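Sample pair:
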Amino acid sequence: MPVADDTMPLSAALEAEVEAQRAFLIETTQKLVAVASPNPPGDVTAVAEMAAGLLQTIEGIRIARYETAPGIVNLVAVIPGAGPGRRLVFNGHLDTFPVGEGQWTVPPLGGTLKDGRIYGRGVSDMKAGIAATLTAVRILARLRDRWRGELVVTLAGDEENMGSLGSRWLLENVPEAKGDAMLCGDVGSPMVVRFGEKGLCWVELEAVGQPAHGAHVHKGHNAIDRLRRALDGLKRLEDLPVEAPASVSSAVAAAKTVSEPLSGEGEAETLQRVTVNIGTIEGGISPNLVPAQARAAADIRLPVGVNLETIEAALHRELDVCEGVTWRIIRAYPPTFTPPDHEIVQRTVAAATKVFGKAPVSNMRVGASDARLYRMFGVPSVVFGCTPFNMGAPDEYILVEELIAVAKVHTLAAFGFLSEA
């Protein structure tokens, strides 16, 4: 095995071992894709059993299974090192988007390998990332005499529904799920190490009015007009000032030229301001009737530098004065970040630099992942995974060479973190 070749540097031997595991990595990704685990409905029992079977092939591993609701199965696997030390967690989620509508050119659960790509629902989000993790821990388990502490794998059965029965439950109830750092293979780009994520606040609004004939508007109160005024106030939250740490602002600015071509023009600005997306509106039953009711729901995203208390105060200020309007927050969590100069961020950057021959950038993440939960529980965390192509759409795929590279980065970063403490 290359890891036993003392004539080559250990980092090169670790990369060579990942290359030697290429077939396992590809086949594991295909096998995971082939087992459906859509959320909704959220039953991941079959894919959890498959993942547990793959983990059980590792000598000396301890695996615990936690079913937090019917079909919501979470796994926690622990691999001890040569002695006491730090704990590094590899986190992933087993659930995926549903197959959905639209025309696939390959079987959605086929794990088709074609032209250097692996296709299938959930291959990018995030069964390829899980395969990279499984490959890394297989290799590192055989080297446990060279590192100390514990290597932990947490596979959550509930991420697409915000993780309350998955990673959050594990962090609240299973001590081994926490660690000194966490590395997640969720979607992203091998050229961007994601160290933080925006926060979220979902709001529902309801307006009531007085019905009347549309020709006799003087006899009624239009609920849609009342709702519209409230939504104008909601959009004013986008003007809230942001006071982010200089290290975060500098990282976002420095990452722009690399990150935006991958994630879309305007990402840097979106990461640094409050955004309000009015996602649904309904009301009224006919054009010639004054509506008596109207409803809307909005998605507010918070950058680092704006907290939930500020958002709630602004909501009270803007909405409480709107006659006939009531509102409520239905889901919320704060923005989170790990300082860009933290060891786990820097080790991931260094590992990616070694693998790719050039340094990736460090940046925030617009969307959510379970990394936010780990940070909320005090665990420094990064996300480093494959580029998602057609995620949530027909013909979802990842690139095989990126998958191999991600597995190398995970292996190198984890070994460095545990062996050089």
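The chain has two domains: 2-197+336-419, 199-249+265-333.
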